[in-house]
Amino acid sequence: MRIAVLIKQVPDTDDVKLDPQTGTMIREGSGTIINPLDLNAIEAAVQIKRMRSIPCHITVITMGPPNAQFALREALALGADQAILLTDRRFAGADSWATAKVLAESLKKTGEYDLIIAGEKATDGETGQVGPEVAAMLSIPCATYVTEISDNEEYVVVKRMVEDGFQRQRIHYPCLITVLSDLNRPGMPTLKGKMDSRRATLITLTADDLDIRSDELGLMGSPTKVVRVTTPQKTRETRRFSGHAIEKGIVELAETIKSSVLNR
User: Fold this and answer.
1) pTM for the full model?
2) DSSP string for residues in 72-129
3) Which of 206, 213, 247, 252 could make an SS bond with 88 (beta carbons 3.0 to 4.6 A apart)?
4) What is the pLDDT of residues 139-165, one digit of tens each?
């Protein structure tokens, strides 16, 4: 069985800055980590490998700048067998569609995978679109919001979180699933895993290695266009009431709410 795990290196901060000209994220100058939900995806693949009686191979793939190799080496330390880095300046500024295009083509090029696992969404984008887009481009079934997985030789059974509860879904291989944090508790790398990951050879692919036109890559190939980037301005005035003045504050608040409702 061959499993691919799609991961992303994201800023290790809530203070995300945007380029006002391009509307893209400025990633330089901040620490990075593996997207938290992608750690659940890695752990899911490792658990499936442990349960399988037949050989199981895990490949982890990411698209990003050269320093994304550190995220890949962490994934190798956590139990992945192989790591692929998709890096090229022409990939820069890609939205979810252009990103999915590169990931899908890399999956086609590097082998036939039975199961593809990804985190439901990334903390720096929150779209949840890349996984389903990759599945659509590969013409394979997809399950999202997965909180439980069981598999056999022919298909995988997943438990999905939906608006009014949970849903069980059986999907034949090959397929793609995106997972939530409820699925598992990500493991910790072993000392041997860390040592092996440092010596591991990463596979690096650029735009020249993929069958994608230049106008389909990066910012140029992204149908999502940012028209304007603005920073919210804090204009509210606040008043604080404490001690014996609390009751007065409650009365004033009630009058303010009542006045705003009547003036609508």
Assistant:
1) 0.80
2) HHHHHHTT-SEEEEE--GGGTT--HHHHHHHHHHHHHHH---SEEEEES--TTT----
3) 206
4) 999 999 999 998 877 889 999 998 889
